[in-house]
Amino acid sequence: MAARVSSTRFVGRAGQLAELRSALDDATASEPSLAFVAGESGAGKTRLIGELASRAREAGALVLSGDCVELGEGELPYAPLIAALRPLVRTNHQALADLDPSHRADLATTVPGAGEPAADAPVAQVRVFEALLALLDLLSEDNALLLVIEDVHWADSSTRGFLSFLARTLCCERVLVVASYRSDELHRRHPLRPLLAEVVHDRYARIVELPLLDPDEVAEQLEGILGRSPDPALTERLYARSDGNPLFTEELLAAGLDGRGPLPPTLRDALMLRVEGLSEPAQKLLRWLSVHPSDDALLTELTGIDSAELREALREALSSHIAVATADDTFAFRHALLREVVYDDLLPGERVELHAALARALASRVERESQRVHLTAQIAHHWLAAGDQPAAFAASIQAAAAAESVNAYGEALGLLERALALWDRVHDAERLANADHVSVLLRAANVADVAGESVRQEALLRRALELTDAVSDPHRAARVLERLARAQGFLNRQDESLVTIERALALLPADESSLERAALLAAGAKARMLQSRFADAVERARAALDAARQLEDGRAIEVRALNSLGVALAGMGDFEAGAAALRDALTRSDDPGLVHERNVAHVNLADLLSLSGRAEEGLAVARQGLEQSPPGTRDADWIALAVAEIAYQCGRWEEAEAAIPSSARRASGTLLALWRLTRSLLALGRGNLETAASELDIVARALRESTEVQFIGGYGWMRAELERRRGAFDAARGVVDETLDRIEFCSEDMPRIAAVAAVGVRVEADVVQRARDHRDAEAQRRGRERGAAMLERVELAANAWGPVERAELISARAEDARAAGVEDPEAWDKAARTWLGLGRPYPALYARLRQAEALVVRDERGAAGELATAARAAARELGSEWLVEALESLGARARLRLGEGAGAAAGLADEAPEEHPFGLTEREQQVLALVARGSTNREIGAELHMAEKTASVHVSRILA
Q1: Residue 898 in contact with residue 892, Cβ under 8 Å?
Q2: Mapping DSSP to helix (H, G, I), strand (E, B) and coil, where does residue 6 land?
Q3: Are 584 and 549 in contact (CB under 8 A)?
């Protein structure tokens, strides 16, 4: 039998260690990152991270480490983070003292001993995340910080949420976060998978895979254990049995199994051989540890072993390398597989007794220990494992409250749903919960809403509605219905939401003054406003305002009504009144309890200003809202997307790109639609049609049941423009027709009608031009008719609305002239100047492209070349590659001089064409050589670093 268990040598992981050390070096240079170490059970993840930690300490870095606990989803919020930070709390680290008081108070809600929690209402979870990040930043001021979180396949949702937060927010902190997980435990619906999918493409994240060892590496591992070169036959036998799993190899050798006799059929059998070789007190001790890691005091209480014998048993378990002492003075198994083997070997009755005893022992500690949230979660787990349903029910309710108190809403939801599952199995559930069934359902729905679980929220509310008697308690039924309507609206089911609101209002007297009725009126106003049914929205919003102002506690409803009123008034063309209502909403929402309402007001006012031609003002309002909104929340994502959209319109595409939240983790329903549409907007502007198509495909699925015009219209014009640029004119026409039918059927939204119809005019101009080239008179006639119908819609919108729609009309008239075969540079110049006057450079550059084409047709080639040169430079600065290519393509077709430098970059020579053979430019001769070689347009584009469409234009010119 080997004298030691682990190899003295670090085997087979040099490449992975080098990658992690490189990440640590980057962190030292203020380039933070996250690294996920993946491998099957026993592959050596802990050993690799231990080697990294040793080298980090040698380099002067601070190392903090915590493990996730296997108690199931919905328990022990922030467990590894608290374990990692506990040494700092114990030593009263200077960074805690230097932390901003507000951050310290927020941190104290989660990390016991970090400070004094604020006395007011529980803070949002994102504030805890911000406090944790601020602490990490302080800890890494002098030297790099390595934060290790092991076994994140068992991580609670709050810990996963914090890792996701770090992936989005780490910027220049000197921090490396390393998290390990078992790759063989990630089933298809494992909650860690979305996080990994989110960060895998992030430049601040990496995944380090640990393969199994090969035979040579196993031999090196054995030599490090045995202290001599192993017999080749031994290496071969153990490799064949372990498949190169380092832990399995160690355990087989430690158990004295050199492969000469019959080997255990499974790893479990090999591990149990070692455990069974210990004394009975040591085995008894390990049985308790398999149920729960414990300290000296808890083990003494539970095992009944006297202190001297207990110490000997602990020494035996530690010296055998089966148990280890952790940093927080508790004892646990060296490896999770060892714990699982011992736990699985417990008899069913024995398991029940151990869990029940642990639950009772931990319950006695709840009131005298600071880690109340963790203890209550563990107690609930142990009572459930012991089969005591009433105790598990009561403990789950208590643990959910503790989880909510530290903003661990995902865990709180899991615990409440566990209690709800036990409700009908428990006698006197209302007394144990200190609440009736509906109240617990509503509490769980609230938690689901905050946790971003809208589908679960709806299901919980429907169950609450089933249990509510609308006849005997109409106000409670109305409250449930109002919340259900909000959930339905967020899930993009606005028609259903309106039906739910009307159903709730029917339960209450029309002349009654109550919070429920005022809230329902405000909800109805918002639903109608989102459907762009503005007249109805104004009427309902004013009724809600009157009702709210009669109530002492109606401020939140008043602000909601003002938000809807402002947007609806603007939708009816009264911009000033709409803006005044929204500014009033901002003023009245200056209260800590009205953060959401204030965020909505910022978005609505920014959008109104942008739609009314004051994009720069709108961008300033959106930026202000983003500064005031806690990052990482759903509201903050919404405002960030507003910043991105308006920055795009203003020509600040880099700012727009940076503002888009990097993850859709929290995105569902309307937020998902907006997130994808904003990404599509930038992709279309830049010319990345594949990205735009994939994003719009997702939006199409999300909007199947939607009647919210801002999304229907946005999707419609973008999809039509995408198909137009692809040359799929029939598909573009179909999208335009369907979108206009959906908008015009249910709304009065002139801006969206104008945007979709303007693209429709553009599509028909392209169709007619192609039909003219093909001498297809019937297609020309149909295209002109359709274009005229679309132009009429744009004219109606421009007359009813504002300067943006008037700019759309000027461009649409120029497009219509193009369809009629009248190339009018002056019309396009007017369009470009109008768009520039509104501070929108992208449509102005498109107009310049068309203006240059019109100048070419008029044979004003010098003016066309100068205009195309300037437009191409502006398009490059903006970041619109497709416009750059279109201008270069025009230059190639029309033989324009695109100016010094610019012409060379475009591949167009400045010499006179007659100096080249066949009248071809130098670039065209390059293309011709590739054509002669048999290259396709795509291959030509790749060879000469041009777009496939540009290559096609060159080939057409050559053939002509």
Answers
A1: no
A2: coil
A3: no
How far apart CA 437 and CA 434 sit, in angstroms, is 10
Structure tokens at 238: 């153990």
**Closest CA relative to residue 538, chosen from 509, 503, 514, 563:** 563
71 phi/psi in degrees, rounded to 5: -125, 5
- Asked whether 489 and 711 are in contact (CB, 8 A), the reply is no
User: Would the CA dihedral through 939, 940, 946, 947 be positive or negative?
Assistant: negative
Place of tokens 């509605």: 465
Across residues 54-70, what is the average pLDDT?
A: 89
887 CB contacts (<8 Å, ≥6 apart)? 849, 852, 868, 871, 872, 875, 898
Give just the sign of the alpha carbon dihedral 417, 421, 422, 428: positive
Contacts of 60 (CB under 8 A, 6+ apart): 143, 144
Q: Which fold has domain 589-658?
A: 1.25.40
Q: Which helix (H) or strand (E) holds 325?
A: strand 323-325
CATH for the stretch 911-960: 1.10.10.10
This prediction's pTM = 0.60
More confident residue, 320 or 445: 445
How many other C-beta atoms lie within 10 A of the C-beta of residue 655? 16
Taking the C-alpha atoms of residue 749 and residue 528, their distance in angstroms, rounded to an integer, is 12
Phi, psi of 204 (to 5 degrees): -95, 5
| Cβ neighbours, 10 Å, residue 948 | 14
Contact (CB, 8 A) for 57 and 63: yes
CATH, domain range 14-209: 3.40.50.300
DSSP one-letter code for 662: S
The residue type of 653 is W
Cα separation, 467 vs 81, in Å, equals 40
Closest of 110, 72, 121 to residue 372, by C-alpha = 110
> How far apart are alpha carbons 596 and 585 in whole angstroms?
11
Q: Does the structure show a pLDDT above 50 at 50?
A: yes
403 in Cβ contact with 76 (< 8 Å): no
Instruction: For tokens 């019937």, name the residue.
Output: 778
334 token code pair:
């060296």
Over the Cα atoms of the chain, what is R_g? 34
Residue 211 contacts residue 184 (beta carbons within 8 Å): no
Is residue 485 within 8 Å of 447, Cβ to Cβ? Answer: no
| Torsion sign (Cα): 162, 165, 167, 172 | negative
Question: Residue 522's pLDDT is what?
Answer: 92
**Segment 860-896, tens digit of pLDDT:** 888 999 999 999 999 999 999 999 999 988 988 888 8
Cα→Cα distances 679→205, 218, 685, 686, Å: 21, 49, 10, 11
Nearest to 597 by CA among 557, 569, 566, 632: 557
User: Can you tell me the distance from the alpha carbon of 438 to that of 431, in angstroms, rounded to the nearest whole number?
Assistant: 14
With b meaning 16 or more CB within 10 Å and e meaning fewer, what string describes 478-515? bbbbbbbbbbbbbbbbbebbbebbebbbebbeeeeebb
Angle at the Cα of 627 (from 626 to 632), degrees rounded to 5? 60
Given this model, what pLDDT does residue 323 score?
86
Q: Which CATH number fits domain 266-346: 3.40.50.10160, 3.50.50.60, 1.10.10.10, 1.10.287.70?
A: 1.10.10.10
For the chain, the average pLDDT equals 84
Paired tokens of 146: 């390595």
DSSP string computed for 168-225: HH--S-SEEEEEEEEGGG--TT-THHHHHHHHTT-TTEEEEE-PPPPHHHHHHHHHHH
User: φ and ψ at 331, to 5 degrees?
Assistant: -115, 140
Dist CA 651 CA 663 (whole Å): 24
Residue with tokens 């991105």: 644
